[in-house]
User: Which sequence fits this backbone?
């Protein structure tokens, strides 16, 4: 939604991002511009820039390092809440893998690296949450096919208020 | 499978009780106010960003006074006398099989999507950058701590995609933990599986570098840069000097 608003702040590499927005938008009351129809992020006449600021979630810069384990990957992206209502990331799935979860890499006080679930991740109004190496990531488990650099996978993120966002993540050379 | 790796260590009665899983306790500790430097940095690095955070700008943890990264060990660590297993099933005698070689020891697991591949990729790029001369041929040991899933086949595929010169090792979980704890690192944690079968693995977030004198003079954090890790440039600076016997 709010394609104009999101485009305005796109980064140079933000070309592979929100494919489409599915589901309903819940507004926080003052801007009742929710819609139940599928709306393309690139063509959303029903969602004017000023029409649905509440619960307005944009997902961009989605990439996945070429996996070393052919079945396991981590998608990194940025979730931006352009609205004036907090939202929560409550689910994730992919048609390209068996299991998708949201994790955060942490190091415990004893010096042990591990991951912890990041369920119901809050996306505060007006904030941007970065999923980057060594932090939050969308863990992809059980990839259905072997991937090469340049391939893409689809990840569907579900938000409490904004509904679903289908995101296209490009497979990139692994970070070092 | 969850009890295996810690069975060789001082498993306490409390951690085997039938009540709340010990893993849950462990996880809650992660969420607590960590006092460890690395832990604090890591948690900070994952914080919600209120604006366009610039993780590229995070400084490396190089000690400016010496130009070395990581942490100096004084006195240095000696090599634990343990025997692991190569991917061909042969014994890997740690002391004998690393004798006199620049050796980077790292513990991880192949279902690790983030920290482990980034560390190994960083090491692979550092090797390429050093190219020739001292420090250009470190023996990089990747010990798979998730022994049920880190099979030789999976380990081979995993390392071949990163750097085929890296040496994958597996072994008895108790022996792996002995190696870890004798190097003053926390033992492996394998949490109980979730209903979907997935489970959390905890492994030391530190790489230990042994030098030609068969001692470890420095250790390095293995998180990624944003979370307190070691940048590729630090390895490129340090490995040649370590290989030549300069440690600080």
Assistant:
């Amino acid at each position: 939604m709010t394609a104009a608003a999101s485009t305005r702040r796109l980064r140079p590499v933000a070309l592979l991002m929100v494919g489409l927005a599915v589901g309903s938008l819940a507004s926080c009351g003052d801007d009742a511009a929710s819609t139940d129809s599928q709306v393309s992020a690139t063509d959303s006449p029903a969602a004017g820039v000023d029409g649905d600021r509440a619960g307005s979630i944009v997902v961009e810069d989605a990439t996945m390092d070429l996996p070393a384990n052919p079945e396991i990957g981590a998608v990194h992206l940025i979730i931006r809440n352009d609205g004036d209502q907090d939202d929560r990331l409550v689910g994730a799935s992919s048609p390209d893998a068996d299991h998708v979860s949201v994790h955060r890499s942490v190091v415990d006080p004893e010096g042990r690296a591990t991951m912890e679930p990041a369920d119901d991740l809050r996306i505060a109004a007006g904030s941007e949450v970065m999923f980057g190496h060594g932090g939050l990531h969308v863990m992809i488990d059980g990839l259905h096919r072997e991937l090469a650099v340049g391939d893409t996978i689809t990840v569907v993120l579900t938000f409490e208020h904004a509904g679903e966002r289908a995101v296209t993540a490009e497979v990139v050379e692994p970070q070092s | 499978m969850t009890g295996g790796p810690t069975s060789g260590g001082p498993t306490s009665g409390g951690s085997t009780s039938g009540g709340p899983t010990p893993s849950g306790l462990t996880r809650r500790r992660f969420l607590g106010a960590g006092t460890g430097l690395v832990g604090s940095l890591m948690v900070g690095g994952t914080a919600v960003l209120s604006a366009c955070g610039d993780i590229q700008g995070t400084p490396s943890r190089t000690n400016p006074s010496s130009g070395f990264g990581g942490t100096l060990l004084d006195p240095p660590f000696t090599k634990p006398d343990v025997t692991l297993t190569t991917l061909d099933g042969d014994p890997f005698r740690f002391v004998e099989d690393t004798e006199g070689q620049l050796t980077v020891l790292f513990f991880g697991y192949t279902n690790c999507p983030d920290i482990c591949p980034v560390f190994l990729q960083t090491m692979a790029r550092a090797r390429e950058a050093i190219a020739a001369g001292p420090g250009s041929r470190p023996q990089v040991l990747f010990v798979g701590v998730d022994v049920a899933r880190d099979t030789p086949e999976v380990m081979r595929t995993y390392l071949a995609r990163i750097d085929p010169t890296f040496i994958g090792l597996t072994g008895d979980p108790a022996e792996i933990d002995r190696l870890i704890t004798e190097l003053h690192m926390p033992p492996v944690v394998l949490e109980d599986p979730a209903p979907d079968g997935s489970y959390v693995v905890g492994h030391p977030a530190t790489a230990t570098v042994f030098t030609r004198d068969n001692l470890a003079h420095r250790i390095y954090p293995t998180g990624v840069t944003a979370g307190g890790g070691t940048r590729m440039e630090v390895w490129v600076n340090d490995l040649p000097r370590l290989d030549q016997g300069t440690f600080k």
The first strand of chain A starts at residue 18 and ends at 22.
